[in-house]
Amino acid sequence: MNKSEDMKKITKRMIQKEKTRKLYIVAAIEVFREMGFANAQVKDITSQAGTSVGNFYHYYDNKEHIVEEIFKQLEGIFTSFIKNLRQYELPTYKNFHDMFRNYLRIVKDRSHLILFFIEQMGGVNQKFLNLKNQLIYTAAREAEILLTNLMEKKFIPRQDTKLSAFIWINTLMNTYQYWAHTNFEAEEDEIIKNMTNFLIWGTTGKKIEFKEKEIETK
After folding, report:
1. How many CB atoms lie under 10 A from the CB of residue 154?
2. CATH 3.40.50.1110 correct for 1-60
3. 90 phi, psi to nearest 5 deg
4. SS3 helix, strand, coil % of the chain, rounded to 5?
5. With pLDDT > 70 as the criterion, what percentage of the chain qualifies?
């Protein structure tokens, strides 16, 4: 067997291992939402995943380990979009609009993951409540840095940027939670337009007219 074939086998095993890890996360979230974290057992997760208990322990130490993995995935989602806006000296309406569009599309694809975080993660135990709060504070801190920068450049009026940042983050989470519980019935473009206008108008004190030509549907 040559090196090329060895690498193909190794790569295939790594891909399969990652798929199995994701399978357990999806299965665990379903079980946690149906039974509650406290009542769920590893055997319930493996039953949902269609695997054995023994196989589970090749990937995770326990059900708490899965929640830690969920937290790591969410950390990037909640902070990356706002952080990306800081690359612009003065973000435009379209920059904010695109940020909200990307956010909605990613969280929609991970609906069970996000809803578990919003609705249940804080109730698992004190450790995970602290992790949840830490993630919200980290995201709010990114928003605060952005808003403080915009205030210093007189793009927005003087305000408590820390408070405004928490309003931003909670609006994003609550809007998504509502959208998910209505089975995503509302039009994505309408939600994005309303969310962009609400947050930008509330921050700048100016109503922004929505221009169809300015926004490209991706």
Report:
1. 8
2. no
3. -135, 100
4. 75, 0, 25
5. 87
